[in-house]
Amino acid sequence: MAIKESEIRENLAEHIQLLDPSLKVINQEHYIIMPNGRKAYVDILAKDDFGCFTLIELKKSDQTARSAIQQLMKYASMLKSKYRLEESQIRCVVVSTVWRELEEAFDEFSRVSQYEFKGYSIVYTPKKPPLFQEILAKYNKGDLSPLRNFIFFEFFDAKERDDAYTDFCSLLRKLPSCNSIVIKMDYSGTDSSVIHPFGFSWSMFTTDTNRLNQELSKLPVRNLEEHHFDIGDILYLWQQEGEEYELRSKILIDQVRLNNDSGEYTGLALHSLSNTLETWEHEEAIGFGQMFSDLLFDSDDMLAMACGFTGDHPYGFKVKTTPHRAYQFNMVRKKLDAFLESNSNWRNQVDYVLNTLAPNDIADIFIYNPLNFFGLVYDLKKEGQSERIPRLIIEIKREDGNSDVYQGILSWTMRDKSITVKEALISAYGSIDYFKTRMINQRLNECDEKLSESYGLSYEIYFKSKGKLFSIMDSDTGCQPKKINKVYTLNDFFASNHSLIDEVDLILNKDPSSRTKIMF
């Protein structure tokens, strides 16, 4: 005989303290009528010892479950409005015997709800207390972030690479929850350190780890033969904490099989992918998994996503935004603020620029912010050039048809000082050892702006208006444009400070005892 929903409701009300020991039932099918005539029936309304109210919506079939979230939102709003309750006084609870039709709505509402929100699966047996299991939001946060490092497969021979690439793509198609971007690339440059000129990269993104684990468990583990490259011995070098990292490692250990003599694969820092793509010829990025199943992202989108250019890359940021898309615009500004946390000048000046946008203006933002002044100086000493020169470009298409371009550089203020490299390093970083650690860790950059300031250098943004040059001056009273006649660049600085390059060379080559004075 079919069990009625009312029977389950009465049983739940009788045993309400199994959900929360402090709850007491106020009413079953609690009737709410608003002054405008709107009506509602709350399946169970309960109150706890802290003066907070719990609305419980009960469902027992997929057909009725579909409306549970919508009804809870409506009832909570009516309860708050009629009884003048604070949002913190209201808790929404959905209880259902089936959850197939509820999962996505529950995940989303539990993320955005202004109320505390709970879900429970209930097993009801007549004349016995109900059994509850709390439903946890499995994946309630949208996230375009790749893992902090990517896997790079490298090969001596193009055919070996192509075979491995085909095999790996075939594997990813069997794992629809493994959101991934794969990029095939070749190297034809003159760098003799590149001994494997054929490769492909694998960037993995956040996902539903439970489902990915289930998909992976259904695949038989591939035999590891003596001629195969064994990843297990070096995996610890680039394994990080987190379920996605653990599953990625499991994929590599159980499923990837490469010949020892054909090449190798390693885990590289996220920013290394963009560096590699600048020097290697690459094909269009290919996406795998549910994120990329419906072709919402084109190849350019995927390249930017794989490199983490919307806030995950340690020193690169690239995005297009407009105040017209308020939610995306605010998200971009929040990520920009975090990205420039260690560069207060640019952070404040970029904020000023974005505050000039009208609702339909469009801003195309590119920032390259390595925050590694002495690394830059060392490059100039060793190679005569450097990829670590900071730069910023914000191109704005105004809704009136005009355009503005703001450019940021590390400029020279021409201030006169006398300081040694050792003194500057200790002042900025606290110790030479910490500075050397920073040289191999791009995220330890909180002291870098202070270091460049020690040498009279400053991160500034400039623009032209009606043929005149302006700087966005950052001060205690806020940013404002100031007309200037000339910009002094890093070239001007180094032309007047030849000895600095030699001094930095000594420091980075483990001789911090030099006391050469730097005058400028």
How many individual helices? 17
Would you tell me the overall average pLDDT? 84
| Distance N to C terminus | 92 Å
Q: Give the strand order, joined by hyphens, for the main sheet.
A: 13-14-15-16-18-19-20
Rg calc? 30 Å
Question: Any chance you could write out the topology, listing elements then pairs?
Answer:
Elements: H1 5-14, E1 24-33, E2 39-47, E3 53-59, H2 62-65, H3 68-83, E4 90-96, H4 103-112, E5 116-123, E6 131-134, E7 149-155, H5 158-173, E8 180-186, E9 198-204, H6 209-217, H7 243-255, E10 263-269, H8 270-279, E11 281-282, E12 286-288, H9 299-306, E13 316-321, H10 326-339, H11 344-355, E14 362-368, H12 373-383, E15 391-397, E16 403-412, E17 418-419, H13 421-429, H14 432-438, H15 448-454, E18 457-465, E19 468-475, E20 478-483, H16 490-495, H17 498-508, E21 518-519
Parallel strand pairs: 3-4, 4-5
Antiparallel strand pairs: 1-2, 2-3, 5-6, 7-9, 7-10, 8-9, 8-11, 8-12, 13-14, 14-15, 15-16, 16-18, 17-21, 18-19, 19-20
Helix pairs in contact: 6-7, 12-17, 13-15
Characteristics of this structure?
seven-stranded antiparallel β-sheet; 33% helix; alpha+beta; 21 strands; 17 helices
Structure explained in plain terms:
It is a single chain. The protein has 520 residues and is α+β, with helices and mostly antiparallel strands. The protein contains 17 helices and 21 strands. The protein has helices at 5-14, 62-65, 68-83, 103-112, 158-173, 209-217, 243-255, 270-279, 299-306, 326-339, 344-355, 373-383, 421-429, 432-438, 448-454, 490-495, 498-508; strands spanning 24-33, 39-47, 53-59, 90-96, 116-123, 131-134, 149-155, 180-186, 198-204, 263-269, 281-282, 286-288, 316-321, 362-368, 391-397, 403-412, 418-419, 457-465, 468-475, 478-483, 518-519. The strands form four sheets. It has a seven-stranded antiparallel beta sheet with strand order 13-14-15-16-18-19-20. A six-stranded mixed beta sheet has the order 1-2-3-4-5-6, sandwiched between helices. α6 (209-217) packs parallel to α7 (243-255), α12 (373-383) crosses α17 and α13 packs antiparallel against α15 (448-454). The longest helix has 16 residues, at 68-83. The N and C termini lie far apart (92 Å).
